[in-house]
Design brief:
The chain has 102 residues and is mainly α. The protein has one domain (2-101). The chain is built from 3 helices and no strands. It has helices at residues 2-28, 35-79, 81-101. Helix 1 packs antiparallel against helix 2 (35-79) and helix 2 crosses helix 3 (81-101).
């Protein structure tokens, strides 16, 4: 689960970087007055705006899922405190054994 969140965060960061690079490209090519350049800039600008909206939507969805997951985890732990404690102890014991084997 943590790997999935890490991958999603990396994807969002990469997406933001691409948007920033594209915006920089638009600024640099602002002086090019050829018709093809104008069309390309307009198309790129439209796609950038669309990408920004999608990024905001994806970010809000990820946040909602994270909050829902945390709430569900809290609910399960509260409903089964001894089982949760046993699992945590078992995982800690297993990690301790694996670390001491080295």
């Amino acid at each position: 689960m943590a790997e999935t969140a890490e991958i999603k965060n990396k994807l969002v960061a990469d997406f933001k970087e691409v948007i920033a690079d594209a915006e920089a490209l638009l600024r640099v090519t602002a002086d090019d007055l050829s018709e093809r350049a104008k069309e390309a800039r307009a198309k790129l600008n439209d796609k950038l705006e669309e990408a920004k909206v999608q990024l905001k939507d994806a970010d809000s969805i990820l946040r909602e899922k994270a909050v829902a997951g945390a709430k569900e985890t809290d609910r399960v732990i509260r409903e089964h405190p001894y089982e949760a404690l046993g699992v945590a102890f078992g995982v800690g014991l297993l990690i301790g054994i694996l670390v001491n084997r080295r």
